Amino acid sequence: MLNIKELKQGIAQISMEKGLPEDKIWEAVETSMARAYKKEYLTRAAIARATIDKETGDVKFVKVLQVVDETMVFIPVPSDDDEEEEHVKRDEDDKRIRFNSERHILFNEAKIINSKIELGEEIIIPLESKDNFSRIAAQVAKQTIVQQIKELEKQVLVEEYESKVGDIISGVIQKIYKNNVYVSLGKAYGVLPYTEGIKNEKLFLGDKKKFLITEIRENRGSLEVILSRNRSDFIFKLLELEVPEIQEGLIEVKNIVREPGFRSKIAVTTEEDDIDAVGACIGPRGARINALLDEITSEKFDIVEFSEEPATYLKNALSPVEIQEVEIDSTTKEIKAFVNQDSLSLAIGKKGQNVRLASKLIGWEVKIMPILVEEKENE
Q1: Within 10 Å of residue 235's Cβ, how many Cβ atoms?
Q2: What's the angle, vertex CA 33, arms to CA 32 and CA 38, rounded to 5?
Q3: Is residue 283 within 8 Å of residue 244, measured between CB atoms?
């Protein structure tokens, strides 16, 4: 019989320190007791379970047998000569497993024990209770409970961080190795792969940064939280943190296009007459957009008003460049935007970046055309 008072106190303490559910720790203890019993009194093939009475401390042990028939298992036939099992020839398509009396019980035999049993179900065979275990069995129990608690910790972490996939998380940069950045997230470690980072961004040890959680995976038994800073969703989540109207659904972010570390264009709209969608995202004296600039110092952000009308949408996307005239070809989804000669380079942007992002934002191919001085005079 277990000292149930001490056991309860120990489980409560582990639960509090590690943030694990008490019922899961009880299951871990029962699993360790079952493995110790199996090590001491049963064969390797047997399946044992243990149940602890939380009031008295009594431990009940059972053996579990699966109910099978000849469609599920094959039974080797003993040889008459040497009492060894004959080799049973089976077709390649035969998927039946080998019958093991320590794990299986035939259906007709199981019916004698329980007339309501069904094929494939489990039959429980009570075992004699034991209090004393050898040193080896006790060591097995100890190793099992340590392993079970580690698995519980990992499971709780996985569940916690899986629920955060797609959300923003803050972390401190602990190590930079082979262009990958390793981040302390508190309970877990995050990895910012080189492919998910901003190429021209310099990060340093000890920096506290925000990241987008993209994936949870295991690597050599450890939990890895995969992070990103170069996705458009990262910008959306940063903006959502700063703009309550987006969180409340009063402002809708229609599209975000981005060349990470250089420039982003964000199209927003609202159906509320008393809300200026662009102004709300920029914030008083630029406070809200400055929060994004502080997080990604190398990137510029253009907040533009969304429009269903392609010409208006393009004018907003290229602002503050003044477009003099547009030509729209709906069949090819091409827009020619005519601007003054002195606004040409600003409209196109460095290495074509501005017009390229504007094209992606509105979903049309945009061509910037100059209006020459001679054309103006002719007009």
Answers
A1: 25
A2: 100
A3: no
- Calpha distance 234→253 (Å, rounded): 13
CA–CA distance, 44 with 35 (Å, rounded to integer)? 10
Q: For residue 359, count CB atoms less than 10 angstroms from its CB and return exposed for 0-12, middle for 13-18, buried for 19 or more.
A: buried
CA distance 150 to 222: 10
**Contact between residue 332 and residue 362 where contact means Cβ atoms under 8 Å apart:** no
**361-373 pLDDT per residue, tens:** 999 999 999 986 5
Predicted confidence at residue 96, as pLDDT, reads 84
Q: Has residue 195 been placed in a domain?
A: yes
The answer for residues whose C-beta is within 8 angstroms of residue 342's C-beta and 6 or more apart is: none
Specify whether 201 is located in the same domain as 124: no
Indicate whether 336 pLDDT > 80: yes
Q: How many domains are contained in the chain?
A: 4
3-class state of residue 318 by DSSP: helix
Same domain, 70 and 110: yes
Q: Are residues 155 and 11 in the same domain?
A: yes
Give the model confidence (pLDDT) of 214-271 as tens digits.
999 887 777 889 999 999 999 999 999 999 999 999 999 999 999 999 999 999 999 9
